[in-house]
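Please, structure for the following, as tokens.
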Amino acid sequence: MENRKIPTEAINAAAEWWMKRISGKVKHDNGDNSFGSVFAGLMADDLVKPASDAQLQKFKNNLVMRLSTLAGQGRERIWVDCDYSPDMVLSAAAVDADIPRDNFPWKVSMDIDSNGVEVKDGYGEPWVKIWPIADKKNDGEEGAA
């Protein structure tokens, strides 16, 4: 069986997405609208500490290194996610950049393979392909008068 290598571009797109995702408002929603779950989400929101641009860039670089290492070990698919906290790969990249684990959203999953990068950005959300992005050059605009 042929090994389908994960492209460097996929790894870079994945790391860029996570960097942007933890740089803004974090979604702490587990899909349960009970008082306890909503309160837990609000408490988690209060624990988020804004990261500097330097911290975010260091996180991204660390994540690229870690994902590249996994891909270099022959993995054809890499799965990274946050349930209520980041998995080991995301957590290690964050710790190295001094970014708190509380800065990660809940219920987010990412699938990286040779065909692309897909993200499920929260409970009940659909899977969205973030890489490769469809080529917009040939969308029927060429030759229009």
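Strands lie at 77-82, 108-113, 116-121, 127-131. Residues 138-145 have pLDDT under 50 and may be disordered.
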